[in-house]
Amino acid sequence: MKISKKLWRIFGPLIIAVLLVVVVLFAPIKGHVMHDTLQRAANSLSVNVLKGEMIKDQAMSQNYVPFIGSSELSRMDPFHPSVLAQKYHRNYRPFLLGSAGTLSLTHYFSVQGMGKILNHRKAVVIVSPQWFVKKGVDPNMFQYYYSSLQTTTFLENAKNTQMDRYAAQRLLSLPSGKSDKIIAAALQRVADGKPLSAFQAFYVRYFKGLILKHEDVLFSRLFIKNNQPLLNKQAAKLPTKYNYAQLYQDALRMGAAQTQNNPFRLKDSFYTNRVKKVVKKLKGSQVDFNYTKSPEFSDFELLLNQFAKEKTDVLFVIPPVNKRWMEYTGLKQSMLNNFDRKITYQLRSQGFNNIADLSQDGNQPYFMEDTIHLGWAGWLKVDQYVRPFLKDLHAGKTNYHINNYFYTKAWQQRNPVTVK
């Protein structure tokens, strides 16, 4: 056997494999997402969907509207926004973005990754007081949802603005931002108000970014959780025609039926699995909780700044905490009132005036499914704001005026009592 044939038998398969990888990763990007996949992705709450770009971009170019939040989005009872939109054939479908631990910084990078897709469009954001803890986002949770793809998109479009400088600095303050040395160096240049070097720009756009975009096209459609059977099941429990009075009575009935085993009106399964064994230890445990001073206020400003940049019209929902649970754990209503004062000032002073402030509704019957998550009557109340807001999916005239003061530590630590 000739030496050349022997070499080919040894190295041929390796060469072919390398060529296939090159073709797959560097061929022109063409990705079309089927209707069924979009529908499944919109309600999946899957991490790969949140971290990707292709599926979200195609969904938002249709009649899907981003519903941005955290763990409350997974509480899919019959009055959940996705169920109501499906049952009553609304002109929109929620695209759920968020899970437990997704805070403002994760959402900022996700939203900026969509770019101009949200230009003059609408969005709904559920702002949980629990995001605004003393130290801000947990680095481990941020890492779980961290998207290298969205970071390369950020770097490709970064300018010398307060928003981009702060975003780069914030990312560098977390381990995620330092996981790639070249990306970290590029982030540092943005943080310093400098353009990327020629090498960094090439690496971001034509190497790292291109590979990640191909991976998104190839793999983001895989392993998407299918919550559609659950939505169908919940929708079947609702009356054929939308009637608020009837729906409210149904919400009270369903809530009462599912909160039988505890005095806090927590869903029975939640109380049994999460609370019952430790309930005595939790009495008075939240007396010192404080959501009024946090780096999260400036991370939240990033999200507002991005919405303002694209003139996205946003409805902000501020949920309450279960009143009975508050009284048991010692969580102070006065502290929550101060949080509400601070966050609504940050919103209204910059022209974000569409606010569903539900912060005082924690004592309403069956408003909450558990300690901090909206449930039956709560979701129905949210719908009273969402339904008229989304009659038209295109944003009207916005009048935002971003104030860079909200990026400062002075604002993060400011006592809400001083806010007027």
TrEMBL record:
Pfam families: DltD. The keyword Membrane applies. The keyword Aminoacyl-tRNA synthetase does not apply. Pathway: Cell wall biogenesis; lipoteichoic acid biosynthesis. InterPro entries: DltD (IPR006998), LTA_DltD (IPR023896). GO terms for cellular component: plasma membrane. GO terms for biological process: lipoteichoic acid biosynthetic process. It comes from the Bacteria. The chain crosses the membrane at residues 7-29. Keywords: Cell membrane, Membrane, Transmembrane, Transmembrane helix. Belongs to the DltD family. This is Protein DltD.
